Amino acid sequence: MLKSFFQEELTEAGCDEAGRGCYAGPVFAAAVILPKDFFHPLLNDSKLVPENHRYELRTVIEKEAIAYAVASVDNDEIDVINILKASFKAMHLAIAQLSQRPGLLLIDGNRFTSYKKISHHCIIKGDGIYASIAAASVLAKTYRDDYMKTLHHQFPHYKWASNKGYGTPEHRDAIEQFGLCPYHRKSFNIAPDQALLF
């Protein structure tokens, strides 16, 4: 069972990202402030929740959250500043959009760059421990999946509707056959000898 909060004095926002390890597309992040009595039996780390349940949860989270926001950093910026900094920037952008300022950020993972003067606490595998981080993981994942499904129509041979830009065998085979497109992360050196498609 997920924990409702880390402490009781400050308003907490859970933060998580999606798409950090992908070959293509943006990295997305979400920040979520939940009511302290929030509970949903399906809520968990988004990687452990079936796709249809993730979208069901997204509707509930968006309806019941005190505040939430989702932001992204595209592949071009990822190539310039690196994926770790891009993940932090996406979280910062999401936090900045919250309608209520949190007093504490719960960050999934072991590293984070401080945002303004808001205290933060990094929690390894936090999306499986705290409800607010799990909620953020669900929003980040579903928003990113939706984005990759729209890109799929432009470049269907990469099968992004199913692999969402991750380095699956079908995605790697398509890169070998067709090269890289403008949405691939060139800094990942996934196909250094391939020409770009435009």
Concise synopsis of the structure shown:
The chain has 198 residues and is of the alpha/beta class. Helix content is 37%, strand content 16%.
Structure description:
- It is a single chain.
- This protein is an alpha/beta fold and 198 residues long.
- It has a single domain (12-153), classed as Nucleotidyltransferase, domain 5.
- The chain is 37% helix and 16% strand.
- The chain contains six helices and five strands.
- It has helices at residues 51-64, 75-81, 83-97, 131-154, 160-163, 169-178, and strands spanning 12-18, 27-33, 67-73, 104-108, 119-123.
- The chain has a five-stranded mixed β-sheet.
- A hairpin with an 8-residue loop joins strand 1 and strand 2.
Shape: globular
The radius of gyration computed from the alpha-carbon positions, rounded to a whole number of angstroms, is 17 Å
Helix and strand element order? EEHEHHEEHHH
How far apart the termini lie comes to 48 Å
Strand content: 15-25%
CATH class: Alpha Beta
- At CATH's second level, what is the architecture? 2-Layer Sandwich
State the strand order across the main sheet: 3-2-1-4-5
What structural class results from the helix and strand content? alpha/beta
